[in-house]
User: What shape does this take?
Amino acid sequence: MDNYSGKIEYRIEAPFFIIKLSDPGRLNSLAGNDYLYLAQLLEKADEDDCVYFTVLQSSGRFFSSGADYLSIGKAQETNKSEPELNKWLSNFVSRNVYVTDMFTRHRKILICCLNGPAIGLSAALCALCDIVYSMNENVYLLFPFASLGLVTEGATSVTLPLKLGNNATYQALMFNEPIKYDKLKGSVITKNYGLNDTEKFNTAVMDELRQKTNHLYLPSILGIKKLLMINIRDQLERANAVEVNDALKCWVKGEPQKRFKELSLKQRKHKL
Amino acid sequence: MDNYSGKIEYRIEAPFFIIKLSDPGRLNSLAGNDYLYLAQLLEKADEDDCVYFTVLQSSGRFFSSGADYLSIGKAQETNKSEPELNKWLSNFVSRNVYVTDMFTRHRKILICCLNGPAIGLSAALCALCDIVYSMNENVYLLFPFASLGLVTEGATSVTLPLKLGNNATYQALMFNEPIKYDKLKGSVITKNYGLNDTEKFNTAVMDELRQKTNHLYLPSILGIKKLLMINIRDQLERANAVEVNDALKCWVKGEPQKRFKELSLKQRKHKL
Amino acid sequence: MDNYSGKIEYRIEAPFFIIKLSDPGRLNSLAGNDYLYLAQLLEKADEDDCVYFTVLQSSGRFFSSGADYLSIGKAQETNKSEPELNKWLSNFVSRNVYVTDMFTRHRKILICCLNGPAIGLSAALCALCDIVYSMNENVYLLFPFASLGLVTEGATSVTLPLKLGNNATYQALMFNEPIKYDKLKGSVITKNYGLNDTEKFNTAVMDELRQKTNHLYLPSILGIKKLLMINIRDQLERANAVEVNDALKCWVKGEPQKRFKELSLKQRKHKL
Amino acid sequence: MDNYSGKIEYRIEAPFFIIKLSDPGRLNSLAGNDYLYLAQLLEKADEDDCVYFTVLQSSGRFFSSGADYLSIGKAQETNKSEPELNKWLSNFVSRNVYVTDMFTRHRKILICCLNGPAIGLSAALCALCDIVYSMNENVYLLFPFASLGLVTEGATSVTLPLKLGNNATYQALMFNEPIKYDKLKGSVITKNYGLNDTEKFNTAVMDELRQKTNHLYLPSILGIKKLLMINIRDQLERANAVEVNDALKCWVKGEPQKRFKELSLKQRKHKL
Amino acid sequence: MDNYSGKIEYRIEAPFFIIKLSDPGRLNSLAGNDYLYLAQLLEKADEDDCVYFTVLQSSGRFFSSGADYLSIGKAQETNKSEPELNKWLSNFVSRNVYVTDMFTRHRKILICCLNGPAIGLSAALCALCDIVYSMNENVYLLFPFASLGLVTEGATSVTLPLKLGNNATYQALMFNEPIKYDKLKGSVITKNYGLNDTEKFNTAVMDELRQKTNHLYLPSILGIKKLLMINIRDQLERANAVEVNDALKCWVKGEPQKRFKELSLKQRKHKL
Amino acid sequence: MDNYSGKIEYRIEAPFFIIKLSDPGRLNSLAGNDYLYLAQLLEKADEDDCVYFTVLQSSGRFFSSGADYLSIGKAQETNKSEPELNKWLSNFVSRNVYVTDMFTRHRKILICCLNGPAIGLSAALCALCDIVYSMNENVYLLFPFASLGLVTEGATSVTLPLKLGNNATYQALMFNEPIKYDKLKGSVITKNYGLNDTEKFNTAVMDELRQKTNHLYLPSILGIKKLLMINIRDQLERANAVEVNDALKCWVKGEPQKRFKELSLKQRKHKL
Assistant: This one.
């Protein structure tokens, strides 16, 4: 597993496989290879027979501010000689198809400990989790596709209507609005811990999980997830293929790059 | 577009195509040809490349009190020589198949400004919109199919369970109960403006829409809707065909006509 | 209909077919044959042309505490000579396939009067009802599959995500948590009567139903249900087959029997 | 049933409901109301409990040469004052939605005795039959949509790929090629009687049917059809709605009318 | 695995798991428990990691003449005190749900060596195989559901239209016609060995299989089957549930028992 | 369009967009970038309003011998420092997702002039075409996935069962057998030109196409394809995503590379 990323740690405490985003200084933004590493960790968890739950944790203020602007700029510049198509096939399509698929077909229970805002592809992965806990009411999910010249990613064209309802999804996606706690409560978030420290939140979740899973027959859990997945599996896979090919056209035309750049300039001035 | 109806106005303020029901005196009830005109306006908006949002507004106390009883009576009497089947194929099936389809396959974002109650087919069209805003908490949707001897129309057999949930749909449809603000909030209505004047409400929505769409890359919006529609497109089309053919049997047997007539007599006495 | 059970009564008050669980002393727990009798009553209601609503009532504190432990133990011991496979095919698979199917394809409106907690297969049947009313806020549904070494039953792998949402379903199923009134409200329960006496509750519901159905054209009601069922019918049938065959493996391996036994011992000490 | 048409006869010889196109002089071309009458006969057969098989026969050289050009011209001219949209909603959409639906949801076994060529909507109905017998090898189906400025009708966008395969369907539809006996054999036609007289053919089929159904338990037949229909029912209904709404656009633009007229002129010269 | 049946043998010659029906004297008719044993052997093959192909062979003149009449009669008489419903749940529903499911979800390549006719459920299982070889042109499949008062079994409501096409399926099922070699060729049978001795046929197939699989990467084979199964898996499971519950009604009403009895009497006279 | 490949030519002769594989010396094997260029040409044809048919031609003996072994080897060696995962995401996943999608969503009629054998991904693209003509009876399609340690590519897990039937697909895929003319005839190939010179074949097809499309209303053709595609569109996209992610695992494990290498060595000795 050689996309090793300094920004992501993991440890196994059977039956839990705990993955932690650990770059709070840069709000846990992730470059392309970080997302690949994350997906590879999921694959590792999937193959480990003593693992029944895959837990995503983060650190600091944000769960993850999404794709790292710098890495996008870099991708664009490194292989200047390559055709635009090939560049974005390698840097966008192949990565998103793989990462989304690893979340989509994960056989263990995916639990997300949402300590703060999640943006873009990171928010999409959160929407692919089976269970989400929030640290407090300040969390939100933001899918800025419409303001970045993109379309939905990470199977959000399926997960958001499924989990938030159709009209709330349009409201959030069309106007680039954050989906706040009051919308996520019940539909995405099943428990709010009401804490203010990410480490304490992570610990509290793990303590409760350990206690709750104590008397369970763990193979039943995987059997139940398998049955539940049948309902949406095919739709998620279908969305994955269509989304990346639609987004590819955006990248080849160049709008997202332009808007990421503007955003990055603005951000340097104002701090997010 | 020659079903021109004095009850419906429209104007284009790119990227918005604004359609307004403007017959507040008769609570914006619509005759068969009015619905056709409404659908034709949607088609016009769909084909206009500078349009990204199609906004439905109304006027006065009601969004729309649904099908105009008089027009139903008239339809029945004009072509007395025609077989019952043919009469209702022309007056009901063909109109509903077309109107529902125009809403179902509309490619622009459909926004409904719900200033008051919507009933019957008008309520069904509201349920087909992507985004609904309410003027205040007095709005409701009413689907009186069970008391009129009809079955679901306008793909409500798909949209209501999808948006309101299965059991709430049964409760509303089986007992002819209005679906009030507290049920619509979150699931159908994504923002309540808390106003009491329809004109001010319409203006407030348009002002906010203009401001919200300012920084968006508009082609992304249509790309996102296209991806979201894949999930329900086929189901909506299927429902459209089955619903009209089931309802046709009701019309040919004559129960709805009888009940519409009773209702119309009652109404003349009590005012709605 | 010869699975006659002393625990279940029924009466016909057209257009209502009223089925009542009447074993409050044992919390309306049901043995295999009781479930079959219940399903046969549904079939009877389905075939009776003067019936439009099938109403499930119960008695005492619990709606139904689920499968009767004793009957499971007995099933296991009677036919000691039979292969394990055949034993559980007869005692589990065949019963669940039939009962679930009778609820899934029932053509009349299924109304559940939830006077108290429902557990296991009984709770699954409640989740298959079209409309659920609660007596008060103390009701809950409990699906203890994960702690009993089982997987979802009674098409709950479809009904729970459909009615409660995906993440709430995982939260409840994976950790064996009761789904309480605040989660059921709106999604499963469409009205709470706020009463404390089951008989008064049952009477209140029937009084309201009689009054509400007064002005309806009853054939419309069945026509509307037929249209609504198209959306989920195939999914429910598919789930039924997969669930029983997955559960069969659990029974053949013996985990559920062991855990039912433990539970039954514990219960004898503590009272539930 | 008041679309009574002198071109179509029927008789009931339980368990058979026999419908016969009886206008050999005009090659059994059918006007709009003739198709409605045909569909109404199907409905009558469907509701008759002593009917298990609905048999379509014809007379003369052609099974049916499709829509009667004259009736199309007439439709166009009668209601000159009506908007184009309304005219074609009444004359095309409503008729096709209904006729296709009556074939799609017919519960009895549909048997077509193909004595000769079938064209257009008539050919589409033949493709909707469960069983087709041919008189001899001169039969063919022709779907001249591409040369008439139309799109597929009568759910042929589903039935043809299903029965003939994908590529053979493209070959036939895109180039307006007749689908001849060698393609129909096995896929659509299950027996060829090798006769040259339509009356003898009709008699031979009925004789064989009577003998073949002798020892059957007839309710099983309807039960089997119900199970087989589940596979394609929803797809057929969905196609019905989409096809008519797509075709409507063609009619409103006017291309089919123009091409039907040309064809009619040509025909008058050359004889078909 | 304790339904051990003297009529079925098996042996493992990795990568082949070979199951052989070995009761040629009674034309390899199978009683309920024989079918269970067959399904259990499939499960055994599925779980054995060194198995990639599960090969079904038979012996003598028939592949399998289907359900053993005697066993049906016996089932009926043993538990005379049991309600009819329960009797057929145990003897028909549970067995068919399980056997069909074991074939439906089998992960190894299912190869059927069709040495002669297969009838009823045995023929249905043959239609569920991935690959079928015939000994000669005298083989046929017969599904006598319509003459036995039954409906389709073993997911034939899905497999037959899928493999033989829609109209050929109706022709065979509605008139109780054997599906002969010329119909099976290409669609079900991919190679005909043109032999006249079952043992030589079985040997010839195994020889060819060994040689053909020589250079393959066997894990690819299972990966490909997994991808191919996605297309029909859900449909097969759905059919399984609906078919058994529809058939159950037939058994409870008693028609199949009566007809099986008649058949058995006739047979004793004429020899099949 | 900068993946320009010397191996592929194109010209536009409205309404035809003609793409020609022009590397007969190396049997029209294609490297990764050649496939991208081919897909980009399809996109160009899709966007050109005067194009209604996209025709694929080839040259020499083979239509295309599939992926170029050398290019696979090169891909492997160039970026030795890159993680295996990333290498195959760039070289396999991203390319296949894009190429398959361009064929899957192509709106113009795709016609393949099959002059000789097609292998691997090239054969998969041929199976995605709407219409295929053969030069003579020596053509075949070969999908050597099982012998190369791969799984299905290019949506063949959907197209092959759809076009060839389920059992014929298993026979071909499991044993790495060429699918010869007699299997392709009717199902994939709709006309055989019986010629022996590729240039003459290409000319003959174009001549016939020009003549056949003469009297058609071309927009109807695209309208019909749109309706036909609804049936399989979602399935093809779903297959695309699942196939590439399953194949990715194969590449990361290294089996295909090993087997491609062996094949390439063997080939150098024997000539293909």
